[in-house]
Protein backbone atom coordinates (compact mmCIF):
# COMPACT_ATOMS: atom_id res chain seq x y z
CA UNK A 1 0.00 0.00 0.00
CA UNK A 2 2.89 2.37 0.69
CA UNK A 3 3.93 2.20 -2.94
CA UNK A 4 0.49 3.22 -4.16
CA UNK A 5 0.42 5.99 -1.54
CA UNK A 6 3.77 7.20 -2.90
CA UNK A 7 2.39 7.38 -6.43
CA UNK A 8 -0.64 9.33 -5.21
CA UNK A 9 1.63 11.60 -3.17
CA UNK A 10 3.62 12.40 -6.31
CA UNK A 11 0.51 13.90 -7.86
CA UNK A 12 -0.20 15.84 -4.69
CA UNK A 13 3.35 17.19 -4.51
CA UNK A 14 3.18 18.38 -8.09
CA UNK A 15 -0.21 20.05 -7.63
CA UNK A 16 0.81 21.58 -4.30
CA UNK A 17 4.03 23.02 -5.68
CA UNK A 18 2.33 24.41 -8.75
CA UNK A 19 -0.42 25.97 -6.61
CA UNK A 20 2.17 28.10 -4.78
CA UNK A 21 3.88 29.19 -8.00
CA UNK A 22 6.78 26.73 -8.19
CA UNK A 23 8.27 26.32 -11.65
CA UNK A 24 6.77 23.42 -13.61
CA UNK A 25 10.13 21.69 -14.17
CA UNK A 26 11.02 21.76 -10.47
CA UNK A 27 7.54 20.53 -9.52
CA UNK A 28 7.83 17.66 -12.02
CA UNK A 29 11.30 16.70 -10.75
CA UNK A 30 10.09 16.54 -7.16
CA UNK A 31 7.01 14.58 -8.19
CA UNK A 32 9.22 12.12 -10.07
CA UNK A 33 11.40 11.63 -6.98
CA UNK A 34 8.31 10.85 -4.88
CA UNK A 35 6.90 8.56 -7.60
CA UNK A 36 10.22 6.71 -7.90
CA UNK A 37 10.11 6.09 -4.17
CA UNK A 38 6.59 4.72 -4.54
CA UNK A 39 7.70 2.38 -7.33
CA UNK A 40 10.64 1.23 -5.20
CA UNK A 41 8.25 0.39 -2.36
CA UNK A 42 6.08 -1.61 -4.78
CA UNK A 43 9.11 -3.57 -5.97
CA UNK A 44 10.09 -4.26 -2.36
CA UNK A 45 6.70 -5.84 -1.78
CA UNK A 46 6.48 -7.71 -5.05
CA UNK A 47 10.00 -9.16 -4.87
CA UNK A 48 11.00 -10.22 -1.34
CA UNK A 49 14.67 -10.61 -0.46
CA UNK A 50 16.92 -12.21 -1.61
CA UNK A 51 15.47 -11.37 -5.07
CA UNK A 52 17.77 -8.83 -6.76
CA UNK A 53 14.71 -6.83 -7.90
CA UNK A 54 13.73 -6.11 -4.27
CA UNK A 55 15.60 -2.79 -4.38
CA UNK A 56 14.02 -1.78 -7.71
CA UNK A 57 17.51 -1.44 -9.15
CA UNK A 58 18.21 1.22 -6.49
CA UNK A 59 15.45 3.46 -7.83
CA UNK A 60 14.51 4.32 -4.26
CA UNK A 61 17.82 6.11 -3.74
CA UNK A 62 16.43 8.96 -5.81
CA UNK A 63 14.57 9.94 -2.64
CA UNK A 64 17.85 11.55 -1.54
CA UNK A 65 17.51 14.11 -4.33
CA UNK A 66 14.14 15.20 -2.97
CA UNK A 67 15.33 17.22 -0.01
CA UNK A 68 17.78 19.43 -1.96
CA UNK A 69 15.21 19.94 -4.73
CA UNK A 70 12.59 20.78 -2.10
CA UNK A 71 14.98 23.29 -0.51
CA UNK A 72 15.14 25.08 -3.86
CA UNK A 73 11.35 24.90 -4.21
CA UNK A 74 10.86 26.38 -0.71
CA UNK A 75 13.06 29.40 -1.36
CA UNK A 76 9.99 31.53 -2.12
CA UNK A 77 8.02 30.29 0.89
CA UNK A 78 6.57 32.77 3.35
CA UNK A 79 8.96 33.93 6.04
CA UNK A 80 7.40 31.74 8.74
CA UNK A 81 8.12 28.61 6.66
CA UNK A 82 11.71 29.38 5.66
CA UNK A 83 13.11 27.32 8.56
CA UNK A 84 12.19 24.32 6.44
CA UNK A 85 15.06 25.14 4.07
CA UNK A 86 17.53 24.64 6.93
CA UNK A 87 15.80 21.38 7.86
CA UNK A 88 16.05 20.20 4.24
CA UNK A 89 19.75 21.05 4.01
CA UNK A 90 20.50 19.15 7.25
CA UNK A 91 18.31 16.32 5.99
CA UNK A 92 20.26 16.18 2.72
CA UNK A 93 23.63 16.01 4.49
CA UNK A 94 22.38 13.33 6.90
CA UNK A 95 20.89 11.26 4.10
CA UNK A 96 24.03 11.24 1.99
CA UNK A 97 26.25 10.65 5.03
CA UNK A 98 24.19 7.65 6.10
CA UNK A 99 24.16 6.34 2.53
CA UNK A 100 27.95 6.50 2.53
CA UNK A 101 28.03 4.55 5.80
CA UNK A 102 25.59 1.99 4.37
CA UNK A 103 27.89 1.59 1.35
CA UNK A 104 30.85 0.83 3.61
CA UNK A 105 32.49 4.13 4.53
CA UNK A 106 34.17 3.73 7.89
CA UNK A 107 33.37 0.01 8.07
CA UNK A 108 30.68 0.81 10.64
CA UNK A 109 27.97 -1.51 9.32
CA UNK A 110 28.02 -5.12 10.48
CA UNK A 111 25.54 -7.96 10.23
CA UNK A 112 24.66 -7.32 13.86
CA UNK A 113 23.86 -3.60 13.47
CA UNK A 114 22.68 -3.21 9.88
CA UNK A 115 19.07 -2.82 11.00
CA UNK A 116 20.00 0.17 13.13
CA UNK A 117 21.78 1.82 10.18
CA UNK A 118 18.83 1.11 7.88
CA UNK A 119 16.46 2.75 10.34
CA UNK A 120 18.76 5.75 10.64
CA UNK A 121 18.91 6.05 6.87
CA UNK A 122 15.11 5.87 6.69
CA UNK A 123 14.86 8.65 9.28
CA UNK A 124 17.07 10.81 7.08
CA UNK A 125 15.66 9.80 3.71
CA UNK A 126 11.88 10.02 4.12
CA UNK A 127 10.67 12.70 6.57
CA UNK A 128 11.32 15.55 4.13
CA UNK A 129 8.21 14.47 2.21
CA UNK A 130 5.95 14.91 5.23
CA UNK A 131 7.52 18.23 6.19
CA UNK A 132 7.23 19.62 2.66
CA UNK A 133 3.65 18.37 2.37
CA UNK A 134 2.76 20.08 5.65
CA UNK A 135 4.52 23.28 4.54
CA UNK A 136 2.69 23.31 1.21
CA UNK A 137 -0.65 23.02 3.01
CA UNK A 138 0.29 25.96 5.27
CA UNK A 139 1.62 27.97 2.34
CA UNK A 140 -1.52 27.34 0.28
CA UNK A 141 -3.78 28.28 3.19
CA UNK A 142 -1.90 31.57 3.46
CA UNK A 143 -2.25 32.20 -0.29
CA UNK A 144 -5.99 31.50 -0.18
CA UNK A 145 -6.46 33.79 2.83
CA UNK A 146 -4.47 36.56 1.10
CA UNK A 147 -6.59 36.29 -2.07
CA UNK A 148 -9.83 36.33 -0.05
CA UNK A 149 -8.83 39.50 1.84
From TrEMBL:
TM regions (residue ranges): 25-49, 55-74, 81-104, 116-137
Stated name of the protein: DUF2306 domain-containing protein
UniProt keyword Membrane present: yes
Alphabetical UniProt keywords: Membrane, Transmembrane, Transmembrane helix
Species name: Rhodanobacter soli
Domain of life: Bacteria
Amino acid sequence: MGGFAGLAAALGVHRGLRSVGTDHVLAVLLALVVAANGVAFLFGGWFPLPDHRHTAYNLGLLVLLGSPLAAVAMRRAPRDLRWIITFLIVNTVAGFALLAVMFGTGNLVTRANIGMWQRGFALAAYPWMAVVGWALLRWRRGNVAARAA
